[in-house]
Amino acid sequence: MTGSDEISERVPRLLRVSAALSWRFVAVVAALYVVFHVVGFMATIVIPTGVALLLAALLSPAVSQLNRAGIPRGLATGVVLVGGIAVVGGVLTFVITEFSKGLPQLQEQVSASLDTIRGWLKDGPLHLSDVQLQQYLDRVVETVKENQTEITSGALTTAATVGELLTGLILALFTLIFFLHDGDGIWRFLVRIVPRDVRGRADVAGRRGFASLVSYVRATALVAVVDAVGVGIGLWIVDVPLVVPLSALVFLGAFIPIVGAVITGAVAVLVALVANGPIEALIILAVLIGVMQLESHVLQPLLLGRAVKLHPLAVVLAITTGLVVGGIAGALLSVPLLAVLNSGIRSLLSESDRDVEPRQVDVLEPQESGPIDTGGERVADDGVVDRIQDALSDDTDRGHPDAGHSGRR
Predict the structure, then answer these.
(1) Half-sphere exposure (CA, 13 Å, Cβ side) for 55?
(2) How far is it, in rounded angstroms, from Cα 95 to Cα 86?
(3) How far is CA 9 from CA 3, 24, 270, in A?
(4) How many CB atoms sit inside 10 A of residue 293's CB?
(5) pLDDT tens string 263-297
(6) Burial 330-358 (b: 16+ CB within 10 A, else e)
């Protein structure tokens, strides 16, 4: 026994295990820090690519349907892109037009609300005089003047952000074209990086992941429509101005699960409070709560299904992490990424996926996005690390016939 072995034997086993776990934990944290730092540094590329991937998951079924109908894939891609841009452009034009029409009415109602607030400050419990009110207004004006430099720099920063946004939109559109036209070829190229003996399992897991992304985007879009329509009907009944723009805002916010529609719905409640009063604002708040309950307990479990079902705590933690790391874009992309990882890892853990050919996985069919084991039950979550290692090693150890078949395309 060497000196080092003798020393190791004198160290309590609990301390040795704790030390081994600790340095591995530090290594994982350091690796994640490097990944997050690189992603943040490359955000102008990563975010448009992620958005393009989401749009590809939404539009790929339409391209495939046109291609199966006999239309060349390049022409089908062009038709779907032009149609999608026309729909989005038309919706944006309609929203902006409605906002412009409703803005004068909102300004009048805000002015009336300010007069009401002024009267309450004078005649209410505070009993402020006109001189005191004018002093407060003068202080607000003086504060704006003192911070004029910061406001100007903020405007310049906003202009720069708009420029970056336009650049990102162009990059996302350019990337989306290639994803729709030759997404399968791009995936086959990427899969060649994986060692040949485990390439088949990785290929199947990746396809399962993209299938879950397709399912997620479809379900989220439908949930967003229901949220927007529900809140919009409430706004229309209460006669709140800017019904269409506020509904469109709720629709966009609903793509960030759980918190997105709540935040954008809060904007609608504030507008109702300012424009109509507290009673109407409470009614809109009740409508918003009802829509959120419908989304949480009916729509998401029914539409997302078991293939991409995620625990609400996991969703909230993913959104929070994405928000901290990448802001709004990170919050938007975090849950789809979690859904893809969830489905891909479950595929690696699945016994039934050992005998599945990659071509047998239809990525455009959400109901097939999750593997089912022999007993018909979904893959359990216990022994995750060991089962992933077994999944990636058994093709080599047992001489699995499917190992490396994806390289023979």
Answers:
(1) 24
(2) 14
(3) 10, 21, 67
(4) 10
(5) 888 888 888 887 777 888 889 899 988 988 887 77
(6) bbbbbbbbbbbebbbbbbbbbbebbebeb
Q: Give the 3-state DSSP-derived string for 345-365, with helices as H, strands as E and coil as C.
A: HHHHHCCHHHHCCHHHCCCCC
Q: The tokens of 342 are what?
A: 């969830």
Tokens of 258: 């759980």
Give the tokens for residue 105: 């009415």
Closest CA to 91 of 233, 244, 228, 229: 244
Half-sphere exposure of 122 (CA within 13 A, CB side): 11
Residue 275 CB neighbours (<10 A): 23
> Which bin fits 380, alpha (ψ -120 to 50), beta or left (φ > 0)?
beta
Could you count the other beta carbons within 10 Å of the beta carbon of residue 252? 14
Task: Let me know: does 379 contact 350? Beta carbons within 8 Å.
Answer: yes
pLDDT digits (tens, 9 = 90+) for 373-387: 444 444 444 444 455
CA distances from 43 to 39, 76, 80, 130 (A): 6, 30, 27, 52
Is 217 in contact with 211 (CB distance < 8 Å)? no
200 within 8 A of 405, measured Cβ to Cβ = yes
Task: Give the H or E element holding residue 160.
Answer: helix 148-191
- Tell me the residue type at 347: S
Tokens of 291: 């829509």
Q: Under a CB-based contact definition with an 8 Å cutoff, are residues 326 and 39 in contact? A: yes
User: CA angle, corner 149, sides to 148 and 154, nearest 5?
Assistant: 95
pLDDT band, residue 5 (cuts 50/70/90): low
